[in-house]
Amino acid sequence: xxxxxxxxxxxxxxxxxxxxxxxxxxxxxxxxxxxxxxxxxxxxxxxxxxxxxxxxxxxxxxxxxxxxxxxxxxxxxxxxxxxxxxxxxxxxxxxxxxxxxxxxxxxxxxxxxxxxxxxxxxxxxxxxxxxxxxxxxxxxxxxxxxxxxxxxxxxxxxxxxxxxxxxxxxxxxxxxxxxxxxxxxxxxxxxxxxxxxxxxxxxxxxxxxxxxxxxxxxxxxxxxxxxxxxxxxxxxxxxxxxxxxxxxxxxxxxxxxxx
Amino acid sequence: xxxxxxxxxxxxxxxxxxxxxxxxxxxxxxxxxxxxxxxxxxxxxxxxxxxxxxxxxxxxxxxxxxxxxxxxxxxxxxxxxxxxxxxxxxxxxxxxxxxxxxxxxxxxxxxxxxxxxxxxxxxxxxxxxxxxxxxxxxxxxxxxxxxxxxxxxxxxxxxxxxxxxxxxxxxxxxxxxxxxxxxxxxxxxxxxxxxxxxxxxxxxxxxxxxxxxxxxxxxxxxxxxxxxxxxxxxxxxxxxxxxxxxxxxx
Amino acid sequence: xxxxxxxxxxxxxxxxxxxxxxxxxxxxxxxxxxxxxxxxxxxxxxxxxxxxxxxxxxxxxxxxxxxxxxxxxxxxxxxxxxxxxxxxxxxxxxxxxxxxxxxxxxxxxxxxxxxxxxxxxxxxxxxxxxxxxxxxxxxxxxxxxxxxxxxxxxx
Lengths: 259, 250, 155
Known about the structure:
The complex is a heterotrimer. Chain A is mainly α. Chain A is built from ten helices and no strands. Chain B is built from ten helices and eight strands. Chain B has a six-stranded mixed beta sheet, with helices on both faces. The longest helix of chain B has 18 residues, at 156-173. At the A-C interface, helix 3, helix 7, helix 8 and helix 9 of A face helix 1 and helix 2 of C.
């Protein structure tokens, strides 16, 4: 009986949480225009979530591209199709690994930081103090971070992809001897600007929206104690990562399903 | 349910202390006045406006006439002392920078921290942080300033400084002040009127002298800090002997 | 001072991101090569195009000189008609050139290879190749192989 009760309580809490997240999103979006008018706040947050995430994106992109180059080469060479290496590396990165891996890294690096920051501001009564100073914390604190996340992730994903392609180039062309011209031309012939690249960018915009939403909401909704903030941070990484992977399947089915 | 019928009048232009044991809803009272909580029943009116029934715009307009100093000081950690005090002015008005600078330096001078204006909150001691929070609370020249536990966790010198500032600012700027505290000595030393809360009600009210002279047991226990009395030392339990006889639960 | 530095960093970050997007579109993708400026379109009629796709390269002696721009079925004779856009500098392709659908490597992508003839007349916009060779379909090839093997075994 208690098991059933616990399940019921969990369901009720989950639905209520979803409702709070929805209302919170509505409040954020309605105050987004206010944040856009004071673009300096957004710029500061692009620095915090974008520039500070750049290093991990560059390093990860390089290694992922190198692994793709290596694995792709050894698989393709068995069929005498190593001339298609550039295409394999580029398609894998533009369609999937670029948007998805950078969103996962973004959730771990920037998302957790956003949750911790907003949660701590709540725990130390900074948000309450803003309210009492007649400043809406959603417009002043949350909305700029939300917009910055949506701007930063697509740019990070594009950099991840480009660096990955160069990583594949390094392994495939420089080390394993695929012809450089063939590497790039096979890529250009097979990768479509709309089907592959634009869809990849759309994916990363959606991921940026989802990850940042989850991160700022978890921070704003955190229990205002040290323990509550640390649990909210963990929840951000877990929920955002799962959301990225789930959304990725949905978007892939929608975008590439008919091809 | 925090309150069981609570009726307070805060007189204009005076320092009113709201005292009572921890958990009796003192901070809740400030949140009700500031409109951060809505009462389940009853109403809070501020200068004729019913706080709980205002729309967001009107509520924010009202809050520009209130200042609040939080127990944790609640300084914005990514802004310097100067920017913290300037924050409410910058966010709520279109004043030019030169004028804001004058106002901020004036407020900081009042609390004696003009020299610290470039420090970050992490570099301040607890007492200094409270003083900055106080300067920020009066930045917009409010009519009402609320202090949530202003004396908690301070050394005696800082405590004395804060008490002096609360009193002097109230008189010099013509403020109305509400000080929520459980510190009897400091509360009584600065307030003209004291409300003593307990069990969700006002137990006693009057001038500090009247309360100190009261013979009512509830008042006496709080004022003298007695461990046992109307507020019992023991958490409600069945008799000790009975509990011992029962043995461990099967 | 500090906010200036942040603005610079963010500016560089956004610039790098836009460069990366541009690189994706131009260097990795094919935005600059799909549209052949000028040039002319010729058609080839094939019994079977196999796995030929739009945007596949059209090559002469292994060098790309154009792209496939459209593939559709002629409703009268059920042959596939492949439209090819040839770049304008190759305006002297002989009229009797043969077009074949070839495969790059064993499993690679398919493309159209042109085998120049010896005619003095050149192909013009809207012309059709007279000689075409369809794609080799692996299943049919294997079928033929088994068939000829079994015939050979019978003798």
